[in-house]
């Protein structure tokens, strides 16, 4: 009896999935939801025969960006960098889909003939023109968004933002306040200016300003101090031009410490104000 052996063949997505699985054997990186969405969008486009046939080059560029995002995630790149690459992947998938629609409409227009079809041909021509215009606008949006996203990522890196379950968090340390006071020191002006710039460049962005203290003193006194410090940061940002309706404050007092209050170093880390950028607020 003859036995045949088959060697599995992996497509582009199979290679990405396999690479991710092999990488996971060593370490399990934090899940990145933006990257998950980018993968899903790419798979949908890759399974669309019209996109495969009419926009292979555009789809290839989306695949290359997705591969770069995957590799950046595996290599432990900053979340902001992975998010940006995932965003670029989704935009390039959109360009591939719109380009395929445009080319399909153009092919229909070219195939239309005869006096009897003139009216229909005119309609299809307008549809093709609209699809072309949409593709050009989408490409322009990607270029503008890339520039803004790169700038925003750089600012957030300067402020040492961290990605958490609550969203991106920028921590202002105790050194930016006078001792046991809610008054901001002159050393805080640089961070305040950078935060204000982030809000100016992202008009839809909102944030919660949350105050924390160490466990020294009474719980009531610590709660009041954390509230005053959060309000002081809000007032400083409003003075720098951030609309007050995009900011809110929350006091936590000595709750939710990030370090051991038994040491001076730990207490200093616990005395902080966190700027929590809303997860669902688009950066545009």
Topology summary:
Layout: H1 12-24, H2 33-46, H3 49-54, H4 56-74, H5 79-111, H6 118-158, E1 162-164, E2 167-173, H7 189-201, E3 207-212, H8 219-239, E4 247-251, H9 264-270, E5 272-277
Parallel strand pairs: 3-4
Antiparallel strand pairs: 1-2, 2-5, 3-5
Helix pairs in contact: 1-4, 2-4, 2-5, 4-5, 5-6, 6-7, 7-8
Key attributes of the depicted protein:
2 domains, 60s Ribosomal Protein L30, Chain: A, five-stranded mixed beta sheet, 5 strands, 284 residues, alpha+beta, disordered N terminus, 59% helix, elongated
Task: Characterize this entry briefly.
With 284 residues, the chain is of the alpha+beta class. The protein is built from nine helices and five strands.
What's the helix count?
Answer: 9
Element pattern in H and E: HHHHHHEEHEHEHE
Shape: elongated
Helix content class: 55-70%
The biggest sheet amounts to: 5 strands, mixed
**Strands across the major sheet, in which order?**
1-2-5-3-4
Number of strands: 5
Stretches where pLDDT falls below 50 for ≥5 residues?
Answer: 1-10
How far do the termini sit from each other? Answer: 65 Å
Integer tally of domains: 2
Structural class: alpha+beta
Bin the strand percentage.
5-15%
Average the pLDDT over all residues and give the rounded result: 82
